[in-house]
Write a structure and sequence with these properties.
single chain, 98 residues, mainly alpha
């Protein structure tokens, strides 16, 4: 179970960093971000998560808000997985968590 939580935490961490990187390049590159190779690469990494959130949200949610909502939901999921991992480590003993 600990390995499953570690893998989930790692996947969420990568997705969070890709969305954070997109936000940084959005601010730095401005309108030219679509031609930026690194922005496109970060979009590819974060696309499965943003598409899932887009499918789950109603149509009244604007497309420009979906990445922010995705980031917040991933951050919440990361916090839940981290708390569960800590809880598992405390209950099973710290030797298994090193």
């Amino acid at each position: 179970m600990l390995h499953a939580l570690e893998i989930a935490q790692l996947v969420l961490y990568i997705a969070l960093l890709s969305l954070l990187g997109q936000a940084a390049l959005y601010l730095l590159a401005g309108a030219r971000r679509d031609g930026n190779f690194f922005y496109q690469l970060l979009q590819i990494v974060g696309r499965p998560f943003t598409r899932l959130v887009r499918r789950l949200t109603p149509r009244q949610v604007a497309d420009r808000h979906v990445p922010v909502l995705t980031f917040l939901l991933l951050l919440l999921a990361y916090a839940v997985v981290t708390v569960e991992r800590i809880s598992l480590c405390v209950h099973s003993g710290m030797e298994t968590c090193r």
